[in-house]
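The passage that follows is intended for readers who have already worked through the single-chain material. We present the inputs for a multi-component assembly, then the predicted structure in tokenized form, and finally a short commentary. You are encouraged to pause after the input and sketch how you expect the pieces to fit together before reading on.
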Amino acid sequence: MRQLIRWTARLYPAVWRERYGEELDALIEDIQPQWEDLLNVLLGAFRMQMTTWNYVKIVTAAALAGALVAGVFAFRTPERYVSTAVMRIAPAGQTDSDRQKTLDRLQQITNEIVSRRDTALRKALRIQLLQTQGGGAPAFLISYEYPDRLKAQAVVRDLVSSFIQQNVATQGNRGSSALETLEVLDPASLPARPLAPNRPIIVTVGLFGGAVLGLLAVLVWRSTLHSQKT
Amino acid sequence: MSDPTLLVLASLADGEKHGYAMMEDIQRFAKVRLGPGTLYGAITRLEQRGWIRPVGSDDRRRPYCITGAGREYLQAQLTSLDQVLKTAIRRLKHA
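Having made your guess, compare it with the prediction:
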């Protein structure tokens, strides 16, 4: 413990250590060291550094500390990959009524497919109708978010197959002659980059956040010292 | 009273002492244990303000003594504290 406190005492500014270092060392030798003393010396060194450093040094150190904390957070946060596929369902007829029926059927197929999946998958799954110009065949996007990009792609691929199978099955059950055609516009993508976390952005925010906090801390600290002196 | 600078000045008021002696003395009369960092933070500030000064010694355990300015400052602080105490005690009696 005594040795640990001695090492901690090296965190004091060099100028301060030159003047008081031996005395502090002798004091550490004399006392029965406790954990509180270690913390006390650490805080003392920090306070002394704050009084001897200039603004630029403090703000730079705070910015680097902020970037470090943000970096640790960013690299501890698991990556999230999103695989997507785009499908289109062509209505059996050209009228607005045919189009509405197709959309209703698409909703029905989607509900059937999604209801068979587990809750975790449903949470990370998104099926979104895309805007089609001039009332064309409705297209929809399937996207799935997962930490493993290959798994994300496999899930979307499986969903695309399920849509095709479900479409064939339900139309077969209806015995309809006017069949909706389901086609794959974009197959399940293999995401090259993670959607999240955006590590450069997080580290940059940490850097600037640390700098601002450092500046505020030094202003408060110095004004407190000034009021103590007067 | 827990201001480390006042405690150190009060400890040195009856004669020179080194760090460990101050720590022991303060613990005895104020029931406050100053950590090494707090004690030397206070010593640094007090020396910078000219309220204490080191006494010439070859020992690593360098003693300090209170200066005239330090004594005046301590006196002023104690007078102020005394007024607060007297007022508080009087008001407690009448409450």
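Commentary: Residues 199-229 of chain A form the longest helix (31 residues). Chain A touches chain B at residues 5, 16, 20, 22-28, 30-31, 36-37, 39-45, 47-48, 229 (CB under 8 Å). How closely did your sketch match?
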